[in-house]
Amino acid sequence: MQFQSNQSNRRLRGWILDVYPSTPRQMNVWILAEHGQRLHLVDEFRPTVYVSDKENNLNSLFCRFFSDSNVDSVKFVEKFANPTDSRKSEVLEVVLKNYRKNSFFVRGVLQSGRYLRYRVHNCDLRHSQVYLYERDLFPLAFVEVKVTEGELEYWLLDSVKRIDYPVPPLKIARLSLELTKKNRLAAFNEPLDKAVLSCEGNEIVVDSGDEKDKLLQIVEAVHWLDPDVVLTRGGDSFVFPYLARRALVNNVLGNFILSRDGSPLVAENKQGKSYFSYGKTLYRAPTRRLYGRIHIDESNTFVLRESGVEGLIEVARCCCVPLHRAARSSIGTSMSSLQNFQAFKDGFLVPRNKHVGEAFKSAYALLVGDRGGFVYEPRMGIHDGVGEVDFSSMYPSLMAKYNISAETVLCTCCPDSSLKIPELGFHICKKRRGIVPKVLEFVVKKRQSYKQLAKETKDEKLREIYDKRQSALKWILVTCFGYLGYKNAKFGTVDGHMGVCAFGRNTLLKASSLAEKRGFRVIHGIVDSLWLKKEGASTENYVSLCEEIEKRLKLPLDFSGIYKWIVFLPSKTYPNVPVLNRYYGVKQDGRIKVRGLEVRRRDTPKFVDDAQMEMIKALSFADNSKDFVEKVPNALKVVKDYRRKLLNGEVPVWDLVVTKRLSKNLENYTQKVSQVIAGEQLKRAGFEVSAGKSVKFLFTSAKNKNYKRRVKAKELIQETTNPDVNKYLLFLYSAASNILSPLGYTPKQIKDELMGYEYVKFV
Amino acid sequence: MALDHEMQRWSGFVRALRKEDKLVFDQLMDVFRNFASAVSNTTRPVLFEAMVMSVLLHQKKVLNKLEKMVVAVSKQSE
């Protein structure tokens, strides 16, 4: 519903659902009113950028801007121009007429100073987010809005710090399509067969009439159900581009309006983006928006997958990122929005580029400082009664505790500060609190509150909500340390990044020393966790140790339980050397913890995954290491059963499908590895294959001389396709031997033992 | 990484060893790998120093163990 002009000066209350710019001076705001109406409001918005001059002479620029047709107004203001500034300086505040001319204007200013003299601030921020920052609002905030002539006035009736905020009654619909497939692959030239739209128990199936009718019926159905959130699987990469293309083919593109604000879908052929993150090449399809509604593609969202709708709302609120963007963006993007929001509040300008470089260091200082967290090599083998203690959010807590931020490490205001980074000796500011620690303190505290509430509440539903919210915040905390050292993090610092590691190493060593003083042996330790053992130690002993460490180090340490038994596995390359993060064990309460095994890997076929997990479950009945050895035949029986199923053809081929990610484009591979063969098959069949995409395939003849026959892409599997049983048996034996390697089992020994069991049957 | 690089520097030495000596050398390298965290925490520019210290420490541990065993055996025989 568009707000009418005669309704101006009316006040209304509701939640901010979506914000986006449209015409050069307008910002669209969708309000989910408390009485259930969905209101479209329009506010005036002109982007503001700031210009500072290294030579402190902005007068000539001021005169130039005065006659610039892109500039609406210009004035001198006092601001903290750089994150490291301890005093405000004079900068030019330039209000532009058209947000679309923003980058053109910025380029002009930078060119006029030969990219050296002038610095432009707040120029690369999302306009929708700036609109919210400037008004101290956030997505899904409960507000009171006063509509005056062309302008909106807000009263925030909510707080980003609130943990008991009311969630608006969002109407969530799911859209799925079926195509009249002539081939096995869904392609844009295949006509639409059926569309299903379900929302709050209503299901609308569109399958009658010709394709044109079906498309128009989808539009009708969407308008009738009027959802706030539309969930799709593949909406960005296929569903909406496909629907737009079919609408174009049927000459109804102009009427194919699924958004609330009346804008039709666009049939453009936008390319997605392949990018590299944490050693992986990933692919992201371009965002398809339904203005006024939130479209979330479940196959293109991390937050929703990890923390559900509750977590997504929490991230959107905390980080001030609109819902559709929060769903798709990486946590780093949300994190930078949170920091920008804080910078706005504190009167700091957000630089266009990161200015705080790394301090000069000698080679020896780099050797000392440029290291990660500390680890204790695990003591290989099976252990009884080991307790695990973890520092909760160790790195973010250290960053908050020691005030680590770009503007505080090696600050110019207090070079004699007594707060120093261990080993490196860099001083940290004691006069002001950095933007990064301020932000993290808020997130850490909020997460702790949710964890506490989840513990205390007896309401299952509420517990689930709190859990999802704290899990969403956990991801922010998990990424904050890496983000501190990221080259484009505007409030990041490499020296601070090193400092966090140094504080972390120090903390773990101090904690283990305190544990050893109490008679505990350190079995294993990784960065923020310790596995400790003491003969006859009870839960109370561990809890008391945690309390002492917490009191001494002033960092929260959680006791996560005692293991009935835990197995630390050796390296596959060096059987006498232990490796970090490859272990499994069963806690006294029956919980199983597995790290680094096939069950944790994404590329493991379900068949192997199930077999390994079932083996661990068979072993989990053991109460101690002696019992563990006695349960080994039960685990081997599991392997035997799975082997029999595979040999008898009882395993569905879908359970044998392997998933691998393409780290580069197909033409850049020099070897015909399995994922490349499958990728080439898909490409020949008309499928779009690019770096970062996952390819699913079945091994059909892994050792075939003709490489094309070695695998079959999942989408091309037919009823006559048979798996390469020997290859999958090898996977099975390897997974089994990994678990039992401390007892000396190799894949060959597993095979021999199983052949022994079934010798009579098979000969 | 640094450990592997250091070991690579000794590849000529290893190539010239006899099979039985190569096995012992591999055992020695495993000792080194077992102390990798402590080695990295020493932050010494010359990694070989830390390698030697790891081997010395391991040998001392083995000596202590053997000493205990000898004492136990001699007590039993008394």
UniProtKB/TrEMBL annotation, chain A:
SUPFAM superfamilies on file: DNA/RNA polymerases, Ribonuclease H-like
Keywords tagged on the record: DNA-binding, DNA-directed DNA polymerase, Nucleotidyltransferase, Transferase
Reactions accelerated catalytically: DNA(n) + a 2'-deoxyribonucleoside 5'-triphosphate = DNA(n+1) + diphosphate
Residue ranges of domain DNA-directed DNA polymerase family B multifunctional in the record: 360-742
The protein's Enzyme Commission number: 2.7.7.7
Family (UniProt): Belongs to the DNA polymerase type-B family.
UniProt protein name: DNA-directed DNA polymerase
Provenance organism: miscellaneous Crenarchaeota group-1 archaeon SG8-32-1
Lineage, highest ranks first: Archaea, Candidatus Bathyarchaeota, MCG-1
Automatic annotation (TrEMBL), chain B:
InterPro entries given in the database record: DUF8156 (IPR058469)
Residues in DUF8156 domain copies: 2-75
A family per Pfam: DUF8156
Protein name as annotated: DUF8156 domain-containing protein
